[in-house]
Amino acid sequence: MAKILKDGEVNELKLNVDIYNIISNYVSLKKSGSRYIGLCPFHKEKTPSFTVDTKTQLYHCFGCGAGGDVISFIMNIENLSFIDAVEFLAKKVGYNLKFLESNKEIEEDSRKKLFELNELAKKYFNYILFNSKNGIKALNYLKGRKISEDTLKIFEVGYSIDSWDNFTNFAKKRNYDESTIVSVGLGIEKQATTQVRKVYDRFRGRIMFPIKDLIGRTIGFGGRILPSNVNNINNINKINNNFSSISENNNNKKNNAAEIKKPQVKVPISLQKIKTTNIGENIAKYINTPETKLYSKSKNIYGLFEAKSYIVKEDYVLIVEGYMDLIALYDNGIKNVVASLGTALTSDHVKLISRFTKNIVLVFDGDEAGINASIKGIDRLREYNENLDLFHENNIRIKVCTLDKNFDPADFIIAKGKEAFLEKVNNSIDIIDYTLNLILSKYNLNDITDKLRASDELLKFISTLSSSIIQEECIKKIAPKLKLKESMLIEELLRIQIKRKDNKDNSGLYQNENKFSDDYSKFLSKNINPQKKLEIEALSLVINGADYPEFGILNLPLEYFKFNDTSKLFYLLKEKIFNQINLNKNINFPIIISSDDFVDEDVRKLYNYIYFSDKNYSNYKESCREIILNFKKLALSEKIEKIKIFISDAEQKLKEKKEKILSSNEDKEKLNNDINYLENQIDNYYKELINLEKEKFQLENF
Ligand SMILES: [Zn+2]
């Protein structure tokens, strides 16, 4: 179908095209300094902000943020796909494009192969669970958790044998090579002691949950460790003989397994029989397929294929955290449910889900909420709260459903049944109300210091909500609870918002960055988030060569870049520059990134914004030094803020214990121990806090 260009053809074509000649067919351009300007063809304007730069062969509009190279210009103005735009340009300048007919087929073939291998693995794991001796334990465990066989079959649950290479060897016998096994995520490549590369099974001794795409193809797996998994691996070799016609070379297999093990450590006799998974690594309760050509955790969500028709029917979706929760709910007749697999809801997830419903209910375990709101609970909420604007824009409603203390969704539905669960769902509350209540519940509102802390935290949260109507609603709700005047809270809220704009508040808490907004003009305003401003400044210095050759900025940790677009651009620049160095090539500044390097439209916009902005550095080296210092200060402030939260949390607990010791007849000795422990902990936090403050002071006065 689609044709594939030979390597380098796009660059070859670009050498034959001048961006000025092409664009001037559409826009009347005037020379301005070293560039050309004109009225933007992509948005209405009276004064020209559309700029063309012949040196880099890029264009950029300061008004609407449109920009890119000559190909993206043609794509946008003629509404063409990439390949069609390339052909269009080639025709225009009389360039003869060379195509590779078979390339696409090769690519499609390799994807097909990956799907096939996943399909094979799914069937293999499923077979083991239901038909082999090795699967009995797992099957008994699942039945012990009251999951019916029917449901297990609908989700095609399976079991992976507790062995280093059982699946890998099986797949190899079926003519899948090691690189395919690794690239689909079922195998892991490891350097063995013999200097030979070895591939071993990623999933060992786990209940296997196939993750499917919207049309039901298996794109990856989730694996849950079997709690009672303390068998040995002696009888695993028999399995393959029973699964269709495959037979294994047992001796060979054992040797492989032995070689892959980490250098032997003295293990007490009593532990020696414990399964291989224990050797040399921490066992995670859940593991998933890593990012592959087929699977991405930020794009795919577990259970949607099975649930989609029920989601449409009920017009809402429940989101739980784990596959066991999902399967238990499904088994008990609640089928409009998906699992996020431990990641926050991304914009891609929301896009995917919103094709079926606009109503989302997050189901929280009882211990994630409740009176003693944990930091973890707040953290999980923050991830959603940060995207509230996105959800709001798309008319998506998010509610939170909390279960009773110490119950996860699976326990709950099994113990109390469908009706009780649906009642909880009916009582779920809007995520904003929920967050407000959660914050309030952390504090003792009769205590004046606590009350101030509570209002501070609440207002910080409210200040991140972009709609002033919602902000006002929130204030109305919290004022009576805090016994404070609404007008006073509003005043305080304004103060926080102004302070934030003034570049003072960089706690990292509740930073609101609408990652999905197309409105790029905010980039041009001065109200851009101070953290982001700093990151953009840093990227600008890198792009313009100020950071060269010290690479002080380029060597900062990636975590310092907190936004989706800035961190991606930082990564891209790093890769580009270090690649050149590795190839012993000269680096030319400013770093030119063409449209084919970008996978992400937001990153391209950010780059263009930086590239086309004026640079006024009086001293390059000094600017770099300052930026690096600011990054470090911000990182320290963030740490300090976190410690402060830990302290207030521990102090709250301490207070409760002390009250208990006076009033209740609980075990006094245990309470005293707890108090000692907490006091110690608080002491240590304070020590750390002092150290951090010292460090910050030194940085500031350096
Ligand atoms: Zn424009």
- Biggest pleated sheet: 5 strands, antiparallel
Report, as a whole number of angstroms, the end-to-end distance. 62 Å
Bound ligands, each once: zinc ion
What is the CA-atom radius of gyration, in angstroms?
A: 29 Å
Q: What is this structure, in a nutshell?
A:
The protein is 51% helix and 11% strand. By secondary structure, the protein is an alpha+beta fold. A 5-stranded antiparallel β-sheet has the order 2-3-4-5-6.
Please name the defining characteristics of this protein.
binds zinc ion, 11% strand, alpha+beta, Dna Topoisomerase Vi A Subunit, Chain: A, domain 2, DNA Primase, Chain A, single chain, DNA primase DNAg catalytic core, N-terminal domain, five-stranded mixed beta sheet, 702 residues
